[in-house]
Amino acid sequence: MGNEQVRDRSLKTIEYHPYRWTKEEDVDAFVGAFLAALEILQAQGLKIGFDDMDMARRIYGATRGRVGMMLRILKASLFQAKEGTLTFDAIARGWELGLQGSGNVEPFFATEEPTDTALVRSYASVMQEADLKIAPATLDEFEAARLAPLPK
Predict the structure, then answer these.
(1) Rounded to two decimals, what is the model's pTM?
(2) In this predicted structure, what is the pLDDT of residue 152?
């Protein structure tokens, strides 16, 4: 910047990226946040009617690694819980409601568990939407960067 007064009053842009499925510490952090949210719900008396690790993968793909979006989906899902149990269907419906129809639940809430490639593509697609470059570190990431976007 040529103007010192403006330069001295502004901060450098900070990029806060979603969790990356191909980085073990990112996966651990995202899954940890998801499991912590489930623990809070269970402490309030809600039963969980799905495999939490399977759902963590699905939620990751649907949110493209964004914890804030995961919390939004869980909140919307609470209104879909039947008889005090949060189910797979309640989460899928919460996804639809949380995004007010702007998201595509496939393939993340289909009957088949999403592949690692689909999860990597979900991350690549959100990065492309934000016009942020990723440096692919795995073959899945190279392929994802080429094929993204997956979710809408």
Answers:
(1) 0.80
(2) 47
